Description:
The chain is mainly alpha-helical. The protein is elongated, with a radius of gyration of 20 Å. The chain has helices spanning about 30-45, 50-60, 65-75, 100-110, 130-150, 155-165, and strands spanning about 80, 90. It has a two-stranded antiparallel sheet with strand order 1-2. It has a single domain (about 30-165), classed as Arc Repressor Mutant, subunit A (Orthogonal Bundle), CATH 1.10.10.10. A hairpin with a 5-residue loop joins strand 1 and strand 2 (about 90).
Amino acid sequence: MGAQTQEIQSDLPAGRATHRRRRGLRISTRGEYGLRAMLDLALHYGEGPIALKQIAERQGISEHYLEQLMGSLRKAGLVLSVRGAQGGYQLAAPPQQVSAGAVLRVLEGNIDIRFDEGAPLGRDRSQLPRYGTRHLWQTLSTRVADLLESFSLADLLAAAEAARAADGEYIYHI
């Protein structure tokens, strides 16, 4: 069974077939839900282990699905699991030290704009356009990876707090 994906809306003019979809970078629900779970843990960082059931309820994610995601994140060393009645999951490092890129790489694999095996394209001049597009996709993939790496979980929570405050939904810290 394939992972569900969040589709990018088509920019097709009215009257064109709407079943066509843009191709390119897609983050599956695996990446989206995993990142949301990690942000939930970041929001509660320092409070000790958080039960999977609590995360699942707060984020509207199936507990069973979340279990699979947390298993991958645990194996990668991004979260710690604690067994027992007071058990659950917690970040393995402070939110400032965990990047969105690290989380997405674990859950999605490499996030390339376009897959390219890097096979030789040929040496004659007619192949220059193929080299040009390969260079573009490789550069874009590198920049997207760098951007994802530049956002820590703490950065994303700070941006979320700022957005909520701008919308008039204030978050109070006691």
